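Narrative of activities, Objective 1.

The group set out to show that a structural description can be obtained from nothing but a protein's sequence at a throughput compatible with the screening campaign. Below is one input-output pair from the validation batch, recorded exactly as produced.
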Amino acid sequence: MSRRLLSIGVIAIAFGLLTAVPQGNAAMDPRAFIGNLGDEGIQTLGPNVSPAQRVARFRDLFQSDFDVTSIGRFAIGRYWQAYTPEQQQEFLRLFSEYTVQAYADKLGQYGGARFQVTGSQPAGTEVVVNSQVLRTNGQPVQIDWHLIQEGDGYKVNDVYVDRVSMKVTQRDEFAKIIQNNGGQPSALLAVLRQELRTKGQPVQIPAAR
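Output recorded for this entry:
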């Protein structure tokens, strides 16, 4: 498995774990926000869940617990300003569904893995929560969650897997697509539409929250 596919798979574990997080008092504490997902989260989106259910649950999770707009704008980088307001909104919708489809496909491979929080520290306006995924085969994988506070709770602003940023990885991928298509930002929209059609997803997808 390539490093990129491994990273996607481990990020998928991490995203799947968040379905076990209660939205009550535990959300006040960043370590509890991440830590409470350890016991049931992987199994919630594991191999006993159908692909359609996995995608639907992960879609709800990603749009509710991640700062989709901030992540998406970072991922498109300087090309954001080249889009019209309508294209910006379309990009955020496509980006959200593309991310859901890419990561949800990998979730079923990791049922039974163990997850543990190992520490936390402030980082400017963010809080970073450190954790590990303990695989049955292979070395532990380090996951660092970058959280921003929103109201009484938190949202995930980035995930580092073995010191590799999800946001940076996506930005590099999108920039390469644009560069390989004559430097036209609109080409990325066409590529994302085609990717979703290939997966049997409608182009008119729910707006990102």
